[in-house]
């Protein structure tokens, strides 16, 4: 009987499936850096306000669907209003590092980031040592120029 109640609630839109962020107020949720999740709203959005746009980015897919991307570690609030100025959604969003295969090395006062799948390769993350950022950027620019035939 419990399964039937859950299925009925899903069908009526009273609860959201696991692949979509729930819009319960007061329950902050997490998104990984460089990942996007779907936020389904219960009513159409007119305005979207982000507390700190360097932490998350939001793209409006349609009036009731937002795509929220974690940009940098930290937390910020997201506020969505309808055409009458009523709150449709308001919550804190925490951006965390849940990327599998990521390695961070702290050497002296510098931080160095790597992506380690088949083997470790240098990547740039917020907070990395300036020399590391410069080296990785130079390598990426040289690779891009080579691919473009320059």
Which features does this protein show?
Immunoglobulin-like; disordered N terminus; three-stranded antiparallel sheet; 150 residues; alpha+beta; 2 domains
Structural class of the secondary elements?
alpha+beta
Radius of gyration (CA) equals: 20 Å
Number of helices: 2
Shape: elongated
| Total domain count | 2
The amount of beta strand, in percent, is 35-45%
Largest sheet: 4 strands, mixed
CATH topology of the largest domain: Immunoglobulin-like
On the 0-100 scale, what is the average pLDDT? 82
**Contiguous runs where pLDDT drops below 50 for at least 5 residues:** 1-23
H/E order of the elements?
A: HEEEEEEEEEEH
What fraction, in percent, of the residue positions are helical? 10-25%
**Overall CATH architecture of the largest domain:** Sandwich
Intertermini distance = 67 Å
CATH class of the largest domain: Mainly Beta
Count of extended strands:
10
Strand adjacency order, main sheet: 1-7-6-3
Please give a quick description of this structure.
The protein is an alpha+beta fold.
Structural description of this entry:
- This protein is α+β, with helices and mostly antiparallel strands and 150 residues long.
- It folds into 2 domains: 2-96, Sandwich (Immunoglobulin-like), CATH 2.60.40.1080; 102-147, no CATH class.
- The chain contains 2 helices and 10 strands; from the N terminus they run αββββββββββα.
- It has helices spanning 2-11, 130-147, and strands at 29-32, 36-40, 47-50, 56-62, 65-70, 74-81, 87-96, 102-107, 110-116, 120-123.
- The strands form 3 sheets. Strands 1-7-6-3 form a 4-stranded mixed β-sheet, with no helix packed on it. A 3-stranded antiparallel β-sheet has the order 2-5-4, with no helix packed on it. A 3-stranded antiparallel β-sheet has the order 8-9-10.
- The longest helix is centred in the last third of the chain and has 18 residues, at 130-147.
- The chain is elongated.
């Amino acid at each position: 009987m419990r399964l039937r109640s859950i299925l009925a609630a899903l069908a009526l839109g009273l609860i959201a499936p696991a692949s979509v962020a729930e819009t319960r107020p007061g329950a902050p949720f997490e998104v990984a850096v460089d990942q996007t999740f779907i936020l389904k709203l219960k009513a159409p959005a007119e305005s979207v306000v982000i507390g700190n746009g360097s932490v998350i980015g939001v793209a409006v897919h349609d009036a009731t669907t937002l795509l929220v991307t974690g940009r940098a570690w930290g937390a910020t609030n997201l506020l969505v209003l309808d055409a009458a100025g009523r709150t449709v959604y308001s919550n804190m969003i925490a951006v965390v590092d849940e990327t599998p295969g990521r390695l961070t090395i702290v050497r002296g006062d510098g931080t160095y980031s790597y992506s380690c799948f088949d083997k470790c390769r240098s990547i740039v993350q917020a907070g990395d040592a300036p020399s590391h950022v410069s080296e990785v950027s130079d390598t990426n620019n040289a690779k891009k120029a080579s691919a473009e035939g320059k």
